From TrEMBL:
One biological process term in Gene Ontology: pentose metabolic process
Name of the protein in question: FGGY carbohydrate kinase domain-containing protein
Matches recorded under CDD domains: ASKHA_NBD_FGGY_D-RBK
InterPro entries associated with the record: ATPase_NBD, Carb_kinase_FGGY, FGGY_C, FGGY_N, FGGY_RbtK-like
Location of the Carbohydrate kinase FGGY C-terminal domain: 288-495
GO molecular function, one term: D-ribulokinase activity
Length: 549
């Protein structure tokens, strides 16, 4: 394959299903991505806040990208396969055939995406129960989790509900397709379904929210066999799946991870010796993995459970075995930046100029900001322009689905300068949101000194620098920009038996590429921006209170 790096030894395949595409990578034992492929998958948006996909389309795309990355490789060198995916809900009947999640009866659209917010009323009722399981999701369940979506299907699609054989989290659907085994990953069921490793499923919760029929069949539909991430599933790759994927029959397939958690595995355990970082010679609990793509997830681990209001978890062994995980998040980050930039009246001009310079629109915007900054640091250009970034509600730490985006400081100007400024202010708002989450985690007991970034937005130097400056913490970037795929490959490596533990594989396959330090001279400016940031949500709540009175 053109561009393939030639390395000897064993290989592992990581497959990552994101919101809009499927990616696969062939990764060696040192964590180097030897080959990489990506193809889009279909997303349907039949009405506002409804996002659907098709499991057949997703699997077919997994197969095509996997075949591409292993082409020409000695099959005996491929030792293991790991999947990660968005925490979307897959619905199939008793014969594992797709079932519609829409009133149109379109069975090929059988996946409710993670970012689908159709179950807003259902999650409100679930949170009103104040059931004890909610303590492990920051005190309030998100509409992006699976119980409210299940309840929505039961209440709105009774015909589909009666025919359901299995509900899968998408990562678990992929491991089932590969092995024929319906085991679920501890990561998915703990983080998105309310399972706990010590108690399992809580019958009283499902009965209280009106889903008692899941209890009656001993949780067959949602999973009664749970494996730790990286644990080998069944007897490995089935003959049919091997043929579909272009891989050897019987190779090890790992219990999967949610995509953000795979990104965490790919970066958070890296050896930092010699980089003069505050987390050197400190436990992994001093690190926060920030996986930033369409949305962003903030993953911090601890040796004992820490309950953070508005932050999901604590989840035991959901990412790193033996450690508790807290997961903050922002529901729209990359999607928000795209929305703001592409919706601006000056976008056609930007697009043309970027194309003429053979750069992406974001590289061009970053260069344009350097041109207009004059004697100021780039970040100071937004002294009079402020954004509240919750255009798709707030996941953490306010857990308020109803919050809306805000922009303060607009003028009548419509040119490229103004587009560059609103782009900058949006990136700063996302970084300020990260600071908000960090402060909540640290107030509850986390001691975080260093950020580890991965995902598509980590390739944007402005996004990275703003996170360093606004949080005041150094940012570590992985040597491999595709850290999520490395994390998926880590799972396959563990399932193969080539590494004794997830921790060993993380340390050997995760590599540091670059460190971005905060500019402490800018601290006073960003402290003031943060005060304004917090005032914005106060004002939004105040005017909403006035209008509802």
């Amino acid at each position: 394959m053109p561009g393939r790096k030639q390395t000897a030894g064993n290989y592992y395949v990581g497959v990552d299903v994101g919101s809009a595409s499927v990616r696969a990578a062939l990764v060696d034992g040192g964590g180097t991505v030897v080959a990489h492929a990506e193809r889009p998958i279909h997303v349907w948006e039949p009405q506002p806040d409804h996002y659907e996909q098709g499991s057949a389309d997703i699997w077919a795309t997994c197969c095509s990208v996997t075949k591409e990355v292993v082409r020409g490789v000695d099959a005996s060198q491929i030792r293991g396969l790991g999947f990660d995916a968005t925490c979307s809900l897959v619905v199939v009947d008793k014969h594992f055939q797709p079932l519609a999640v829409n009133s149109a009866g379109q069975n090929h659209r059988n996946v409710i995406m993670w970012m689908d917010h159709r179950a807003a009323s259902q999650v409100e009722r679930i949170n009103a129960t104040r059931h004890r399981v909610l303590n492990y999701v920051g005190g309030a369940m998100s509409v992006e989790m699976q119980p409210p979506k299940l309840l929505w299907i039961k209440e709105n699609l009774p015909e589909s509900w009666e025919k359901v054989g299995y509900f899968f989290d998408l990562p678990d659907f992929l491991s089932w397709k590969a092995t024929g085994v319906t085991a679920r990953s501890l990561c998915t069921v703990v983080c998105k379904w309310t399972y706990t490793p010590d108690r399992g499923w809580d019958d009283s919760f499902w009965k209280m929210i009106g889903l008692e029929d899941l209890v009656e069949d001993k949780y067959e539909k949602i999973g009664n066999h749970v494996l730790s991430p990286g644990e080998a599933v069944g007897k490995g790759l089935t003959p049919d799946a091997a043929k579909d994927l272009g891989l050897p029959e019987g190779i090890a397939v790992a219990a999967s991870l949610i995509d953000a958690h795979a990104g965490g595995l790919g970066v958070i355990g890296a050896d930092v010796k010699g980089h003069n970082l505050p987390c050197e010679n400190q436990p992994i609990t001093s690190r926060l993995a920030l996986i930033c793509g369409t949305s962003s997830c903030h993953m911090g681990v601890s040796e004992s459970p820490i309950f953070v209001p508005g932050v999901w978890g604590p989840y035991f062994s959901a990412m790193v075995p033996g450690l508790w995980l807290n997961e903050g998040g922002q529901s729209a980050t990359g999607k928000l930046i795209d929305h703001v930039v592409r919706g601006h009246v000056a976008f056609p001009e930007l697009e043309a100029k970027a194309a003429a310079s053979a750069h992406s629109v974001y590289t061009y915007l970053n260069s344009h900001l350097e041109l207009i900054k004059k004697s100021l640091p780039v970040g100071f250009l937004t002294v009079d322009l402020h954004v509240w970034p919750d255009f798709h509600g707030n996941r953490s730490p306010l857990t308020d689905l109803t919050l809306k985006g805000m922009v303060v400081g607009l003028t009548l100007s419509r040119g490229l300068d103004e587009l560059a400024l609103i782009y900058l202010a949006t990136i700063q708002a996302i970084a300020l949101g990260t600071r908000h989450i960090l402060e909540a985690m640290q107030a509850a007991g986390h001691e975080i000194s260093t950020l580890f970034l991965c995902g598509g937005l980590s390739k944007n130097p402005l996004f990275v620098q703003m996170h360093a400056d606004i949080t005041g913490k150094p940012v570590v970037l992985s040597k491999e920009v595709e850290s999520v795929l490395v994390g998926a490959a880590v799972l396959g490596a563990c399932a193969s038996g080539d590494f004794a533990s997830i921790q060993e594989a993380m340390a050997k396959m995760g590599k540091i590429g670059r460190v971005v330090q905060p500019n402490h001279e800018h601290k006073r400016f960003y402290d003031k921006k943060y005060k304004v940031f917090l005032k914005l949500v106060e004002h939004q709540r105040e005017y909403r209170s006035i209008m509802s009175s």
